[in-house]
């Protein structure tokens, strides 16, 4: 994800089975509801983010 992104809108990557990793820049301040929901291939996160739910 490019630097400067501040928001990830709700359901942006919802049910994206091919997404394995999300590198979020420090500029991200808001992650919308279920933005990464049901990403079954998600194996790791970065920048000390917390994954809530599956």
In summary, what is this structure?
With 54 residues, the protein is mostly beta strands. It has strands at residues 7-8, 21-22, 30-31, 44-45.
Q: What would you call the structural class?
A: mainly beta
Overall structural domain count: 1
Q: Runs with pLDDT <50, length 5+?
A: none
Distance between the termini: 21 Å
Overall shape: it is globular
Strand content: 5-15%
Q: Work out the helicity level.
A: under 10%
Mean pLDDT: 82
Number of helices: 0
Question: C-alpha Rg, in Å?
Answer: 10 Å
Counting DSSP E segments of at least 2 residues, the number of strands comes to 4
Give the helices and strands as they follow along the chain. Answer: EEEE
Largest sheet: 2 strands, parallel
Explain what you see.
This protein has one domain (1-21, 29-54). It contains no helices and four strands. It is mainly β and 54 residues long.
Key structural traits:
54 residues; mainly beta; two-stranded parallel sheet; two-stranded parallel ribbon; 0% helix; globular
